[in-house]
Amino acid sequence: MPKLTVEGVGTFDVESGKRLVLALEQDAKIDQLHACGGRARCTTCRVEFIDGEPSTMTVAEKTVLAARGLSGVRLSCQMLCDHDMTVRAISRLEGSGRADAGPVPQNAIEPPAEY
Q1: Is residue 20 assigned to a domain?
Q2: For 2, 51, 62, 66, which has the most beta carbons within 10 A of its beta carbon?
Q3: Is residue 98 part of a domain?
Q4: Does residue 79 lie within any of the structural domains?
């Protein structure tokens, strides 16, 4: 069972293969944003990796990060918890001015993961 460590929050056992965006909300109880519902469209689910950054990136994640000129961040909706990782939750509902975090992401990566 992979361990997810969220800086300043704690370490949590996460079901292997669970989307990181869902692990942040459900396991770590973080108010993680995901305005587009975890479909790699909005970049509100971004995190910074401290350790254990996945070596692969979906085409959807690469495309949206490049289009927005973002580097040094990853989209939590586009990766699975399949190994231990440590992240900094940088995109949270608190202080965002949004009414809610966004639609609940599906269990599977959307759009279907291409690497």
Answers
A1: yes
A2: 2
A3: no
A4: yes
**What residue numbers bound the domain in which 64 lies?**
3-89
Residue recorded with tokens 């079901």: 15
Query: What pLDDT score was predicted for residue 59?
Result: 98
* pTM above threshold 0.90: yes
Taking the chain (115 residues) in consecutive chunks of 10 residues, what is each chunk's mean pLDDT? 97 98 98 97 97 97 97 98 98 95 97 95
CA–CA gap between residue 108 and residue 39 (Å, rounded): 10
What contacts 26, CB < 8 A, 6 or more positions away? none
Tell me how crowded residue 88 is: count the other CB atoms within 10 A of its CB.
Answer: 14
The owner of tokens 């689910």 is: 45
CA angle 110, 74, 83 (to 5 degrees): 80
